[in-house]
Structures are given as C-alpha cells and as structure tokens.
Amino acid sequence: MNYMKKKKGKTRKGMYLLPNFLTSLSLLCGFYAIIASMDRRFTYAAIAIFISAIFDMLDGRVARMTRSTSRFGVEYDSLSDVIAFGVAPAVLAYTWALKSYGKFGWLAAFLFVACGALRLARFNIQVDTVQKKHFLGLPIPAGATTIAGIVLFSSWMGYGMGGLKTIIMPIVIYCLALLMVSKFQYISFKDMGFLRARPFMSTVGVIVALVIILTEYQISLFVATSAYAISGPIYSLILHFRKEPAQDAIRPRENQAGPGGRQ
C-alpha cells in the first residue's frame, strides 16, 4: 500500500515537471534567438521564436491534460514569455532593421517589450474572467511570431527588401505594441470543441495545413501570423456593427409613446 502511494506521488511529481520542462525549452529557444540575432543570423533567430511558440503552446495544454496546473507554472510561464516573446523579437527587430535609427530604434524595440509585459500582466489577472474564449489584445506570442514571420519572408525574397525593411519594421513594431495593449478581441484556440466534434475532418485539415506550411514555410508563416495580427480589429468591428442594428431596432419601440410619455 505504501509502495503504491509512493509510486503515485512520483507520478504526480513527473506530471508537474513536464509542463515546466516544456516552458524551459521555450525559454531556451527564446534565449537562443537573442544570441542568433546578435550574431546576425536572423533566419535562425526567427525560426527559434517559432519553435519557442510551439513549446509555449504545448506546456499549457499538457498542464491542463495532466491536471498539473500550478501557480508556480503560471508565473514561470509568464517570465519565460517576457524573454522569449518580448525581449527576443525586440532584439531581432532592432538588429535586423531598427539599429540605423539610433535612439528611436531601440526605444521602439523597448516599447514592444514594455507593451508585451503589460499584456501578460493583464492576461494573468483576467484569465479566469474575460479571456476564456477570446483574448483581450494581441497575445504576445502572436506579436513575436509576426516579427519572425516578416524576417522569414524577407529571407525567402533573398533580403531583396533592402532599405524597405527599415521603413516597414518601425511601423509594424509600433502597431504590434499598441495591439497588445488594445481592447480588440482575438479568437482563442484554447476551446477545441469543434475539432473533437469532427475528428476525421479535423485530422484532414491539420494534414492539409501542414503540407501547405512545409511547401513554402516562409510565405505560409508570414501570411498566417500577419492575418492573425490584423484579425483582432476586423473581428471587433464586426462585433460592433452587429450590436448596432440590434440597438437601433429597440429604439423606435421605446419612442412610440410620443412626447407625453403615453401611447
């Protein structure tokens, strides 16, 4: 009996270690992205950020599947995200396109880091209330992968963008920073109920998506990350215009009483 209890205790400890191990791998990839950016190996840095995002996605899912979520894991994940998806893409953007701007360049990179940290802090205090099915503001991993996607797309073009990247990147990094602290709603993929309801079609869709990504991953990742970044404002506008007709339909009935207040 005691042997079974000890074995169960070791199993539970292993379950708690697994999500933290995945978080550590995410942090490692983010740190490598910083080193690669400093060595001007921008493609490697961008790929490392995408791999870090995969590990970041897996650690939360593994923790929920094994019921091994903990306050320590949440805090560790947030600290890891600041480095992997805040500092790493900011250093990549600065060394790749913003360095020529001097003070303006590193301040733009810092703004991305600061807004990413604020986004994580807001997420941590609202995760159990308003951010179950939708994210409030652009998630910091999405902002990081958008920068990495632009770098990969530029490498696919043979860095033929030339001086164009020094014009595009300041605009992009300011927009991403503001989107992270905005109130635009972004679709969350945590609720995968529609995939479980149609397992066969979902499997086919995943295989097709994987083939498309592997065919020209630089283009596919650039399009996917950029589309998600701009989906928040578009989705929020759609929700706004859907609410307005409903309110306009109610107002005439309220005003039917006339000036006297009686029908």
- Give the strand content: under 5%
Outline: globular
Helix and strand pattern: HHHHEHHEHHH
The protein's oligomeric status is single chain
CATH architecture descriptor name: Up-down Bundle
Distance between the termini: 79 Å
Q: Determine the CATH superfamily.
A: CDP-alcohol phosphotransferase transmembrane (TM) domain
**Count of all domains:** 1
- Describe the largest sheet: 2 strands, antiparallel
Strand line-up across the major sheet: 1-2
Report the mean per-residue pLDDT as an integer.
Answer: 82
Helix content: over 70%
Work out the radius of gyration.
22 Å
Q: Can you identify the CATH class?
A: Mainly Alpha
Give the low-confidence spans: 3-9, 253-263
Topology of this structure?
Blueprint (H helix, E strand, L loop, with lengths): L1 H37 L3 H24 L5 H28 L4 H24 L7 E3 L3 H17 L7 H17 L4 E3 L5 H5 L1 H17 L1 H38 L9
Antiparallel strand pairs: 1-2
Helix pairs in contact: 1-2, 1-3, 2-3, 2-5, 3-4, 3-5, 3-6, 4-6, 5-6, 5-9, 8-9
3D structure, described in words:
The protein has 263 residues and is mainly α. The protein has one domain (2-250): Four Helix Bundle (Hemerythrin (Met), subunit A) (Up-down Bundle), CATH 1.20.120.1760. It is built from nine helices and two strands, in the order ααααβααβααα. A two-stranded antiparallel sheet has the order 1-2. α2 runs antiparallel to α5 (140-156) and α4 (103-126) packs parallel to α6. The termini are far apart. Mean pLDDT is 82; it is low at 3-9 and 253-263.
